[in-house]
Amino acid sequence: MTLNVNEYLQGNFAPVQEEIASDELVVIGELPSELSGMFVRNGPNPRFAPIGNHQWFDGDGMLHGVFIHNGKASYRNRYIQTRAFKMDTEAGRALWKGPMEPPNFDLPPNNLFGPFKNTANTALVWHNRQLLALWEGAEPYEITLPNLETVGPYDYHGKLGSRFTAHPKIDPQTQEMIFYGYAVTSEPYLQYSIVSPDGDLIKTVPIHIPAPVMMHDFAITEHYTIFMYLPLTFSMERIMRGESAYLFESDIPSRFGILKRYEDNSSIRWFEALPCYIFHTVNAYETGEEIVLIACRMKGTTCLDIPTKFNDGQDDRPSLYRFRFNLRTGAVREEALSEIASDFPSLNQQKLGRQNRYSYTAKMASEQRPAFIFDGLLKYDFTNNSSQEYNLGSGRYCGEAVFVSHPNSSAEDHGWLLTFVHDTVKQVSEVVILNAQDLNTESVARILLPQRVPYGFHGIWIPEEDLKGL
Ligand SMILES: [Fe+2]
Q1: Ligand 1 centroid distance, CA of 266 (Å)
Q2: Most CB within 10 Å of its CB: which of 31, 48, 230, 458?
Q3: How many whole angstroms from 44 Cα to the centroid of ligand 1?
């Protein structure tokens, strides 16, 4: 296995050292008066020099928040003070290697579920007026707003019985939160949970899968939950032999497990599809007797330098894809929607689980290395299979764009797209705000940030009315 130690510590992947707060940021253009709230994004930012092979996914979680109100913007960034982060800080060095390395069982426990470091670095969820920072291998961390301070690990008053995906789903109608946790070192390899609208973890059930896999996302519809059992397998034997723990097994089919939201493993139905890997789903919904799943699908993956039984250099570039699972006949239909490589999807969250017309994804740059470099945004219209691209311009790269609905929304795409952008020529970072209804127009506004913001993972928008009384 060849690992480039440096590429995820260089350029705008390099961590920043300072935690700062800054008001009255320079804005180019005009911030809409209706855009009022806080945009927070999570991502890896190693506090100390990594030990062992370092991957982008490994660093300590850092939150970057931009508060927008009355046409003005302020910024702050804070580390997520996880238990492991505090132990590293006390030791003055990194104690944990990344999860692609054999774990060190001599270290004290840093989370409820295993020997790997809970960095809390991947995503955020806002549910029951509580902000949680998420890493899929362990428990969430509770974060304060608007200060982004860490309260501590959160286990639902002792009820949390599994790890917690970085991609829980909140049903826009019921306000329930649906999540799962997957384990790679012991059974059950998959558990499925529901949190009530008022934050009570009401149910956790095991779902049987025959072997551990990396399962980064899932999907819900109004009545169903869809799990993705894809052939990116984990093996402790491989890791202890010094090989990669993960292997993409391109000769094993993909399997999608569909069950009604409140049911359990006894009623799950599995559908087989071509081998593939999916980090992120766009959405799923019901239409007649079919469940439709739209996802950023790749034929396989070599990301994280995971070995694979094929590698033609293009197969690991994700693009929009539609699956149709027929609940009556068991048939599966698969269809590529776009040739354009893109990932980190978002949509109007009011359409989650329902048929949506639009999705927004980050468009991958043509550079093959490092992986996950995005030079624009893609808006896809599923009604006529057309797309619009927004190109950031030479040397400018973004991450996931979060869709923010206009408070007086009159259409699914009536709102804005917010994304962190880094200009590698000018060496400045910005938040760029686009009119989601037309990506062919200039940006609505650009907020210049007082320090570099490294490339990161997933963000969230919290409307100002939700921040009141916190
Ligand atoms: Fe993700």
Answers
A1: 28
A2: 230
A3: 12
